[in-house]
Design brief:
The protein is α/β, with parallel strands linked by helices and 278 residues long. It is 39% helix and 22% strand. The chain binds S-adenosylmethionine (SAM).
């Protein structure tokens, strides 16, 4: 256990007693014999003070029931995304599309947080195959590590742009399609928390849609393109920014989705849309 002096020093450097505790626990649990715990803790604290996200320094972070490896190759999984998974699970459980073998697709999987959580949480209820896709080979490498940590069967990992990553025969057979695509508008870049500059740009930023909704182009692509992939009654759940939810609901309804609803996060803010194929 780190002594009180070291703990105070690290707390002072990072400006948070909780973060200091996490750093010290991490350093102590990873210390090799002879390694200087204090030096390593000071080094991590300095990097944190310089703006690196705590999650990247610790190398792992919890998401729902999982402990995931996190690196600068992929977005750090967020609490609001846990709520999107919750909403998707709730809808899937209330409708249970399919014939006992659920086919789940997580588009833009990053660490694998969403798809691997669904696999872990649904495995007792149904046979399941989860497709994890991303355009980023580095993110998929990380998703592969996390899939390996889970040690489960039924995981397909594919690289490519949105639906192009999927195999043609999946068309019309997906029971749950879920995504947390990039949705930050370029015009908002300057006002963002500097800590986000450590995460991949392609995980965060999206172009404005043709009709001018800021940062909406990837959400739009997903809503417009999802229906042909879904089985009858298949569920689509997408995370987005609060100011995109109204446009997304309208687009989902006009694209043919039914039972379209808003996903609310723990702070009470609209943060996504869930709907079903007819
Ligand atoms: C906001 S991150 C979400 C990561 C993870 N699903 C999560 O919730 O933590 C968006 C992900 O979409 C991927 N992505 C961005 N544009 C894409 C595209 N055109 N096709 C496929 N994946 C894309 C990024 O590489 C990134 O991993």
């Amino acid at each position: 256990m780190a002594d009180g002096t070291l703990r105070s020093e690290v707390t002072k450097t990072v400006g948070s007693a909780q973060e200091a505790l996490w750093i010290l626990e991490h350093v102590e649990s990873h210390a090799r014999s002879g390694e200087d715990v204090a030096d390593e803790a000071r080094a991590l604290a300095s990097r944190r003070a310089a703006g690196e996200p705590l999650q990247y320094l610790l190398g792992s972070w919890p998401f729902r029931t999982l402990e995931l490896s996190v690196t600068p190759s992929a977005l750090i999984p967020r609490p609001e995304t846990e709520q999107v998974v919750e909403a998707a699970l709730r809808r899937w459980r209330s409708t249970r599309p399919g014939d006992g073998h659920a086919i789940v697709v997580d588009l833009g999987t990053g660490t694998g947080a969403i798809g691997l959580s669904l696999l872990a949480e649904l495995a007792d209820e149904t046979e399941i195959t989860v497709w994890l896709t991303d355009r980023s080979p580095d993110a998929l490498e990380l998703a592969r590590v996390n899939a390996g940590r889970l040690g489960a069967e039924g995981i397909e990992i594919r690289q490519g742009e949105w639906f192009a990553a999927l195999d043609g025969p999946l068309a019309g057979s997906v029971h749950l399609m879920i995504s947390n695509p990039p949705y930050v508008a370029e015009r908002d870049r300057a006002g963002l928390d500097p800590v986000l500059s450590h995460e991949p740009d392609e995980a965060l930023f999206s172009a404005d849609s043709a009709d001018g909704v800021p940062g909406f182009s990837d959400v739009e692509t997903l809503i417009r393109g999802a229906l042909p992939w879904l089985a009858p009654g298949g569920v689509l759940a997408i995370e987005m920014a609060e100011n995109q939810v109204e446009a997304a609901r309208g687009l989902a309804t006009s694209s043919g989705f039914v039972n379209v609803e808003t996903i609310i996060d723990l702070a009470g803010k609209p943060r996504g849309v869930v709907g079903e194929a007819p």
